[in-house]
Amino acid sequence: MNRRDSTWMQILIPSFLVMSWMTLVIPLPFEARINQVNYNYIRRHIQMCILI
Questions:
Q1: 3-state DSSP call for residue 52?
Q2: Residue 45 and residue 1: Cα distance in Å, rounded?
Q3: How does DSSP classify residue 26?
Q4: What is the three-class DSSP state of 3?
């Protein structure tokens, strides 16, 4: 039971991180071109995610 839970965590957490990075990083250049303030907000959000 415990071993299975740990493997699930090892699978789910990286996939979740990758998905969040995909949604944040891919639109980043376009957002930076459109709105510099929005770009700064996204960068701050990424830093918060890293800290957490």
A1: coil
A2: 35
A3: T
A4: helix
Chain centroid offset of residue 31 CA: 16
C-alpha 9/C-alpha 35 separation (Å) is 36
Contact 39, 28 (CB under 8 A): yes
- Interval 25-36: pLDDT, tens: 666 666 566 666
Is residue 35 within 8 A of residue 24, CB to CB? The reply is no
4 backbone φψ class: left, alpha, beta (φ>0; ψ -120 to 50):
alpha
| Distance, CA of 7 to CA of 1 (rounded, Å) | 10
